[in-house]
Amino acid sequence: MKVRLLLGILLAFLLILAGCNKETDTAQHKKEKTKEGKIKIVEEKSYTLVDSITHDHVLSYSAIIKNESDKTLNVNDTTIKYVNKTGKVIDPHIIPNDPDVHLAPYILKPGEKGYISAEGIINKEPDTYDVKVKINPIKPASNVKSLKVKDDAMNQEKENHILHIKGTATNNTKESTEYILVGGALYGKQNEFIGTIFQSQEAQLTPGKSIPFDATSSEIPDKELAKVKKYKVVASTYQE
User: Fold this and answer.
1) What is the domain class of 39-135 according to CATH?
2) Least crowded by CB within 10 Å, which of 13, 50, 143, 192?
3) Which segment of the chain is annotated as a signal peptide (predicted)?
4) Rounded-to-integer distance, Cα 227 and Cα 183, Å
């Protein structure tokens, strides 16, 4: 009888221990699942303005995103919708329907930031609107390589709503490149976020070779661009 009682107590203890381990494993799995694919928007800004040449109504959006997971992620599958206060797309005649979205870099290592520039054109002045951003991070098929940036400088042409960051990107990797992406952020005197810049171009660069770049902002009101006092610019390439 005592032997049976002891065996019963031992079995119950083992079941409880197994249950605890299962709970711990499940909690750990949930924690890992939460960390995987976590992309955070750390800064964003949107503007409405009239194009100085075409006179179209432009919806402009800029953002900085950050990979807060512990994995390298491809965030190129990013979509943006401009919606009114009821959640509906402002105008079905946005050209294109999904506004152009530019991202650089679009493969982010843990802790790394990416820069989004986007624009949409509508045929009338919009009411109050909001921007809905959807990011679908996936495992990258290629490796991101940072390129050295030098001789960079800021320039704004008067009354065209666009700011330029010009400079030189050098292939400081051990492999040749086929193209480069340039991205960055614009800041005011007090480090307030104003917008982003972007450029993509073919660049057949062997190791050690350089190429000039001219990254431009999305269309931003001139009065906002006049506040820009600082910027950050990065260049990258992707290799299989």
Assistant:
1) mainly beta
2) 13
3) 1-18
4) 19
Q: For the CA atoms of the chain, what is the radius of gyration?
A: 24
From-to residues of CATH 2.60.40.10 in the chain: 39-135
| Contacts with 209 (C-beta within 8 Å, 6 or more apart), sequence order | 170, 171
Q: Which residues of the chain have pLDDT under 50?
A: 1-11, 13-18, 20-36, 92-93, 95
Which contiguous run of DSSP H or E holds residue 91?
A: none
Contact 119, 100 (CB under 8 A): yes
Q: How far is CA 117 from the centre of its chain?
A: 9
Q: Does domain 143-239 have CATH number 3.40.390?
A: no
Using alpha carbons, select from 136, 203, 143, 206 the residue that is nearest to residue 175. Answer: 206
Tokens 């711990």 locate to 24
Per-residue pLDDT, 237: 92
Residue 102 CB contacts under 8 Å (≥ 6 apart), including other chains: 116, 117, 118, 183, 198, 200
Sheet strand arrangement including 39-50: 39-50, 57-67, 113-122, 95-104
Q: Is residue 23 within 8 Å of 15, Cβ to Cβ? A: no
Helix (H, G, I), strand (E, B) or coil at 109: coil
In 3D space, the residue among 157, 122, 147, 130 whose CA is nearest the CA of residue 199 turns out to be 147
CA angle at 159 for the pair 158 and 160, rounded to the nearest 5°: 100
